[in-house]
Design goal:
By secondary structure, the chain is mainly beta. Helices cover 12% and strands 36% of the residues. Strand 4 and strand 5 form a beta hairpin.
Length: 342
């Protein structure tokens, strides 16, 4: 497609978003609301999000490609950057995800492949979360990754908070897959990730702090999964705020809500409370308790509809469907052209 037509489509999508705006924030039923805005002018393509294990209220993020070997710590109380970590000796290709393991180490996924899955291998970088916040340079362990069945484009990397096993969700217009890494990654040789489940188009994912829930998100949707026996079982759709380009998701440290991030300058991070089956086992009410939805352990009115995508909650409002389609197409084409080989 000619660049002029792509630019026109992108401009149309941006204009439509500017007119319609995002879904309103806090509502009567305690739905998604803006938690903070990332104010650092260096963070223009926030593509991953992870709650700090050591610093209350701090979330780690990073830019997409074209930034450098940097990871940023953002204070959710102010939206300001309180640390920038430089990964020594790393020249990242397309960083797309971040997660924190049970040992407190930060995992950074250099796993993007916007040429449709052409790179013979990708990388994961690992380093200990700094005990003190501030600008610093760290040494990292680098893992080489390949997928069973050949290269894949991916934007979601999740480390299980109990086992430490690493998972990657691939991204494809026809649907992706969830891949499990070896029980223990090795910095020597190649770590082969094997397919364990089919999943939709995924831009990020996160395990709950107790490891009993997995959430995967796309640009305009998110789905909750129950995690048991090293495998996911789908629960249903979640309320998701409308964002310019929904790229990241992370559980809050208490497991009771999700934080949704987006690319762009001064991007907003939204907080969305969880209830019913979506709550991790460690914070779910007992069988006799009430979730406030009108029935024990239930998800309230519309729960069944949400499972097949027909609910009217959050960003699943039908009126935004056309905008979503236009924006995804324009954004995907723009990014492919921007990164295609010369």
């Amino acid at each position: 497609m000619p660049r002029s037509r792509i630019a026109l489509a992108a401009s149309a999508a941006a204009a439509a978003f500017a007119v319609l705006g995002p879904v309103p924030g806090a509502v009567a039923d305690g739905g998604p609301a803006v938690a903070f805005t990332i104010s650092d002018p260096r963070i223009t393509e926030s593509s991953g999000l992870a709650a700090s294990h050591l610093h209350k209220g701090v979330y780690w993020t990073h830019n997409d490609s074209d930034d450098g070997p940097y990871v940023y710590a953002v204070d959710s109380a102010t939206g300001k950057t309180v640390a920038r970590v430089t990964m020594r000796g790393i020249d990242p290709r397309d960083v797309e995800a971040i997660s924190i393991g049970p040992d407190g180490d930060i995992y950074v996924g250099d796993i993007g492949d916007n040429l449709g899955g052409t790179w013979p291998h990708v990388w994961i970088y690992r380093f200990a979360e700094p005990k003190q916040l501030g600008n610093t340079t760290v040494d990292v362990v680098r893992y080489t990754v390949q997928y069973e069945g050949g290269p894949r484009n991916a934007e979601a990397l999740m480390v299980h908070p109990k086992t430490g096993r690493v998972y990657i969700a691939s991204k494809n217009e026809d649907g992706g897959a969830l891949y499990a890494g070896p029980k223990k990654l090795s910095p020597k040789g190649v770590n082969v990730f094997r397919k364990i489940a089919e999943v939709p188009w995924v831009t990020d994912g996160s395990f709950s702090p107790d490891g009993t829930r997995l959430v995967l998100r796309g640009y305009f949707w998110a789905t909750a999964w129950r995690w048991s026996g090293d495998a996911p079982t789908k629960i249903g759709s979640l309320d998701v705020p409308m964002q310019r380009q929904g790229e990241s998701v992370a559980f809050t440290p208490d497991g009771r809500a999700l934080m949704y991030g987006s690319e762009g300058k001064n991007s907003e991070v939204w907080r969305a409370p969880l209830n019913g089956e979506d709550l991790p086992d460690s914070v779910a009410p007992d069988a006799a308790g009430s979730t406030g939805t009108g029935r024990p352990g239930g998800k309230g009115p519309g729960a069944d509809a949400a499972k097949d995508g027909s609910s009217g909650h959050g960003a699943t409002v039908v009126g935004f469907a056309v905008l979503a389609a236009i924006f995804v197409a324009a954004t995907g084409l723009r990014r492919i052209l921007r990164r295609r080989p010369e």
